[in-house]
Amino acid sequence: MEFAELIKTPRVDGVVLHRPFMPTVEGTLCLTGHHLILSSRQDNTEELWLLHANIDSTEKRFVGSLGTIIVKCKDLRVIQLDIPGMEECLNIASSIEALSTLDSVSLMYPFFYRPLFEVIEDGWQLFVPEEAFKDLESMTDEWRLSEVNKDFSVCPSYPSLLTVPKDIDDESLCKAASFRHGGRFPVLSYYHKKNGMVMMRAAQPLTGTNGRRCKEDEKLINATLCAGKRGYIIDTRTIAVAQQAKARGGGFEQEANYPQWRRIHKAIERSNVLQESLIKLVEACNDQSHSMDRWLSKLEASNWQSNVKEILTTACLAAQCIDREGASVLVHGTEGTDSTLQVTSLAQIILDPACRTIRGFEALIEREWLQAGHPFHQRCAQSAYSNGKPRSEAPVFLLFLDCVWQILRQFPCSFQFNENFLIMLFEHAYASQFSTFLGNSVAERVKLLLSQKTVSLWSWVNRPQELERFLNPLYEPNNLVIWPSVAPQSLLLWEGVFLRWNRSTKCLDEAYQEMAHIIEYNKELQNKVNSLRRQLAQLETEDSPLQTP
Amino acid sequence: MEHIRTPKVEQVKLLDRFSNKSVIGTLHLTATHLIFILHHHIASVEKLSLTTSGCPLLIQCRNFRLVHFVIPRERDCHDIYSSLLRLLRPVSYDELYAFSYNPKQNDQQREEGWQLIDLAAEFERMGVPCDQWQLTDVNREYKVCETYPRDLYVPITASKPIIVGSSRFRSKGRFPVLTYFYQEKKAAVCRCSQPLSGFSARCLEDEHMLQAISKANHNSRYVYVMDTRPKVERHELNALANRAAGKGYENEDNYSNIRFQFVGIENIHVMRGSLQKLLEVVGTRSLSMTDYLVGLENSGWLRHIKAIMDAAIFLAKAVTVEGASVLVHCSDGWDRTAQVCALGSLLMDPYYRTIKGFMVLIEKDWISFGHKFADRCDQLDPDPKEVSPIFTQFLECVWQLTEQFPQAFEFSEWFLIQIHEHVHSCQFGNFLGNSQRQREVLQLKERTYSLWAHLLSEKQNYLNPVYSPSFAESHPVLEPSTQACHFKFWRNMYHQYDRSMHPRQSILKQVLTFKESNRELEGTVQALKTKLQKFGVSTSPLKPQTPPRERSLPPRPQSLILGAPLLKRTVEGSSATENGYGELTGSFGSKNEPAVVTLEFGVARMTC
What we know:
Chain B: Residues 536-559 are annotated as: Disordered. Chain B: Substrate binds at residues 267-268, 330-336. The structure holds two protein chains of two kinds. Chain A is an alpha+beta fold. Chain A contains 19 helices and 14 strands. Chain A has helices spanning 86-99, 129-137, 170-178, 215-222, 239-247, 271-286, 292-302, 304-323, 339-351, 358-370, 376-379, 396-410, 419-430, 442-447, 450-453, 457-461, 464-467, 495-498, 506-547, and strands at residues 11-18, 25-31, 35-39, 46-51, 55-63, 66-73, 78-84, 143-146, 162-165, 187-192, 197-201, 231-235, 261-265, 328-332. Chain B has two domains: 8-89, PH-domain like (Roll), CATH 2.30.29; 111-495, no CATH class. In chain B, 37% of the residues lie in helices and 12% in strands. Chain B has helices spanning 74-87, 107-115, 119-126, 160-168, 204-215, 231-237, 240-244, 268-282, 289-299, 301-320, 336-348, 355-368, 373-376, 390-404, 413-425, 436-441, 444-447, 451-457, 471-474, 491-494, 507-534, 563-567; strands at residues 8-15, 22-28, 33-34, 37-38, 42-47, 55-61, 66-71, 133-136, 152-155, 177-182, 187-192, 223-227, 258-262, 325-329. In chain B, the strands form four sheets. Chain B has a five-stranded antiparallel beta sheet with strand order 2-1-7-6-5, with helices on one face. Chain B has a five-stranded mixed beta sheet with strand order 10-11-14-12-13. The longest helix of chain B is centred in the last third of the chain and has 28 residues, at 507-534.
């Protein structure tokens, strides 16, 4: 298909762009296959360069022959374009509509994007399961890397290599897979070096109404327990929801069949509920005419902060079981691709200092989200302004990032990255020139030949020039487990994302710069003192023979 | 001492408010302190019914601290309880801590402390007296208005008869006087109390007074009169009883060149109830997000904060943009009026955003103009209906501004919290009593110490490390956003002592440390260079990236009230049990955490 077919009017002059907290700009609007570009004619600079994929929804209005298109983006920005001429406006609007809702993945921009930088370190090769397993091997020999899923037939949403208990053979894995939703049998998520406890994740067991059991599944998870020890199963659903799942063939682990495990139910919402929560929150944040009462009640009604609290609390609980109770943990919800991953990845941030570095955090996202089969393509197809009937969109990953931000706020010196890094990940998960977040699983990405045809986000982010923006000047490596407070008074609205476009951040940005500057200056002074000391010491040793004849 | 029956009880358990943690220690009772907690801080004491572990004693403090003791023997508990009840109700000013507090300073130091703030110099700084405004001696003997200071500034055309006539027409004699002068536009901020218009009464002198204010400003043809009371309250003023009592508002027909502006800030009773509701909500254990947000909304607290901010912004805009003078009043002109005038001035004048300037502002709009600190803060033999968190709200508004403009203020939030602490501690003389006159009668300057000197001596604890003096040049007038979503709950104020709720690492503390380290390193670099020069090595001069300090500051004192937030809150890691993620209690038996709060130190001070 040619994009040109979809672009009836590629260029319109005299378009006025309105953006919050920025002066209006008049210029020429150009549509390309992947971008909406507005350049002001005066100095020929591009004032706006917007990926069609970033457009969540559009609205058009007419006053006489002056048309207005309101463009609502997935990064939550809302801009307005005044377009002279009704026909031009209609053409532009329908082109944007068509280009921003292309169904085929292979037409997405990452397949057309050619980097203007030299790829020094290929992001596709950075985080391979073999490397992670080498680290594990240096700590314990209880685990092996199984190739049972090498053609993705046992579990289509799992990667080809999986870490499983050493004593469980592939045949047992296949049987356990048939007992778990989507074939997602229990696999290792995290090994806690401090006490050798582990966190595993899976999907719900398919017990159904007649209480089916699977000896291999039981054996598999029992293999992770030390003799005489018990473990915890954290089911991210309430007991009521888990009960209902039985009727649809799902269910939960029965005490009788898993006597060494204690089950705890939490109440993390399902994805469609989360999507509604996001829509309501953004609506509340964008309405500037609210009285205080209305704002607080709409914030409450959105339930967003409650979701943050619940997810974070569950993650803390998992971490507490591992670190404080010295017990192993199995986490699952229904499919094991959403709330499960929120919990396992956040627990690792709490427990493992490595996850608080930039590389470590990237590795965590690779391991616990991309390779673990979070369906990014489905979940991030639409954002808060989608007005169509929701299919499987949900801000699962955004909620995870929000929770990370909450921990970052409480431990501002323990993370190598800053808030900008999290916001950048949010943006690229929804629309990007890079293909890291394309597809729903490793299998899909392999099929799309992403690593050959497209550029990884990590190839770009990890360049020193880019990284600079994302470094936290306050960072001091902290090897402790960090326990965040989950009291509602301690959890804040993530302004950097949700209020980003309805306030001027100039004053806050400048204050941040000043803080970074103070710390930078400190390093300079340290170096200066050290070099002067060296110089002095040298002179003194040169002088000393003369002084003591 | 005769009120203390049991000065010491051992094996007392101190329970944490939000978790199941507790520590055991000894409770001491002295004339001014219950170990660590100053009596004046205590808002209420509650004796709960006996439990198996002992008799609980619940103490609620004015700095929003809640202390829960468990005392093994009921008799001890009762003794402590009844002693406290008596100690918390001082019957005369002499019993207040300020009169026994002695920081080991001589008389000269004490005097110097009181001379730090000079309001005459402050008016001079604003450019008053000038060709349109003069100092009047009409209240030299407090004869015209008891609750005003002696020195008052009025328009030059306001003669004595006009002033006296106007004062008789205003509640408590609080006639319109100058509180802030915006030199650039020659616009004035004046304050007064409500007119006693009652049954359609008018007062020509008062009308003249407003004329005089109007004439003093050539930049604007009109004067704004801001009535800060909400419409409902104004409607009530139309009620017979109120009008019989003479209360009222300006009849627009009688005043020329006036623009009336109504802003709805609620009265002291509503504010008191609002804070009470807020504290109830945030004091709940295992609070859910829904209950928190619903409770925050129902308390109305942030709505009131926004109302005050909106009013101050209106004031600042009228003065700085329109160049109009503004007269602000409420009922008596010492609560809402003080909030709006002080906050409005702070928006307009960068000086008030410095440490010294903020002290001056409080001294001017709050202390000298007679905000009734004794009544509002429940210092002495209180009438519960007079208590209200009016000043707390002002501090909170300033905090909201510091959040929006992190570089605009020389001080950090700990300065605000410390001032709040001492408004209630009665340790210093500044806030005692209800008016300047009363303070003179109490001879506070001779018998007590000034808080400002104390705060200045600890200045480095209150500095905002990212403060930029040049910010004032680019933003002489602050224009905050008043969108509801930009107002936040002030956790560090209302949960100052609830350690588990705070960030475990403080950016503020970190950056302050870096700044101090930078200063030391600059010194070291200089010293090393001097040494190198002796060897005949010339070194390039160090380019200071931050302006050098005028003088070095004294070392940071260790025994700080704010030692808690500044020093202790860097504890990393902390414990999981303290946060109560729940559901694991007793399952496999969690290990005991070491006690975090030690009760042994800080006896001389009021907090642990």
